[in-house]
Amino acid sequence: MSWVLDLRIADIDGFSDSCRARFSEAFLRVMADRLSMLGGRLVSLMQEKNVGLV
């Protein structure tokens, strides 16, 4: 399942401080999860291709 949220900076600036904090925390959590997933995929691909780290 996927969804898209279209927000402008002006929209976010209009949020209350606590809402902006919750939004930022959720956004950063999603980005961290995706970077972690990407890192795992890169390691798996490197192992599959027998590529070593420099």
Structure overview:
With 54 residues, the protein is mainly α. It contains two helices and no strands. The protein has helices at 9-13, 17-48. The longest helix is centred in the middle third of the chain and has 32 residues, at 17-48. The radius of gyration is 17 Å and the shape is elongated. The protein starts with 8 loop residues before the first helix and ends in a 6-residue tail after the last helix.
Shape: elongated
Mean pLDDT: 89
Summarize the helix and strand pattern as letters.
HH
Largest sheet: none
State the secondary-structure class: mainly alpha
Q: In DSSP terms, counting alpha (H) and pi (I) runs of 4 or more, how many helices? A: 2
**Percent helix:** 55-70%
Question: How many strands appear in the DSSP assignment?
Answer: 0
Oligomeric status of the shown chains? single chain
In short:
The chain has about 55 residues and is an all-alpha fold.
Relevant terms:
single chain; 2 helices; mainly alpha; 54 residues
Secondary structure blueprint with pairings:
Elements: H1 9-13, H2 17-48
